[in-house]
Amino acid sequence: VRSTQYRRILNQDELVNALKTVSIFDVKMVDYNHKDIKFLDQVKVTHNSDIFIAIHGAGLTHLVFLPDWAVIFELYNCEDERCYLDLARLRGIHYMTWEKKEKVVPQDKGHHPTLGEHPKFTNYFFDVNEFMRLVLSAAEKVSGHPQWPFRQSHEEL
């Protein structure tokens, strides 16, 4: 959930409803606004997440609190391709971002008051099927991670 003017997910409800159709997902939407959620509570929510999904923005820095097996899914990087990829690499967790540009639709060209057109200054619609494909891929990465606590060993099978 974003409470800012730009980089809102215009079909967010549709994406969340699609996630809720997959029984293995426990979906929690959180606005990491310090006025509503204390920082320690933000850390707890993040540390108990297997897949952390957000559009480009400072909230993605919470990835440093994710468990080792987690995946950070930067829904769209707004053409700032290395920012959170590098942070995820330094943290040692798997990073994903939107792959098919033709399946993300900006509301407009973006309109920074002094810099002009820029993809960080608009809102976006995302293709639901592509979104679900990427989330399911993230779920496979999580469940395949050797430190994932719910992983079964060959002895348990």
Q: Which H/E pattern describes the elements?
A: HHEEHEEEH
What is the tally of beta strands? 5
Helical residue percent? Answer: 25-40%
What is the terminal-to-terminal distance? 39 Å
Could you give a short account of the major beta sheet?
3 strands, parallel
Average of per-residue pLDDT values: 86
- Number of DSSP helical runs: 4
The computed structural class is: alpha/beta
Order of strands across the biggest sheet? Answer: 1-2-3
Uncertain parts: none
Instruction: Give the C-alpha Rg.
Output: 16 Å
Strand content range: 5-15%
Shape: globular
**Tally of separate domains:** 1
Protein name: EGF domain-specific O-linked N-acetylglucosamine transferase
Keywords: Endoplasmic reticulum, Glycoprotein, Glycosyltransferase, Signal, Transferase
GO molecular function, one term: protein O-acetylglucosaminyltransferase activity
Catalytic activity: L-threonyl-[protein] + UDP-N-acetyl-alpha-D-glucosamine = 3-O-(N-acetyl-beta-D-glucosaminyl)-L-threonyl-[protein] + UDP + H(+); L-seryl-[protein] + UDP-N-acetyl-alpha-D-glucosamine = 3-O-(N-acetyl-beta-D-glucosaminyl)-L-seryl-[protein] + UDP + H(+)
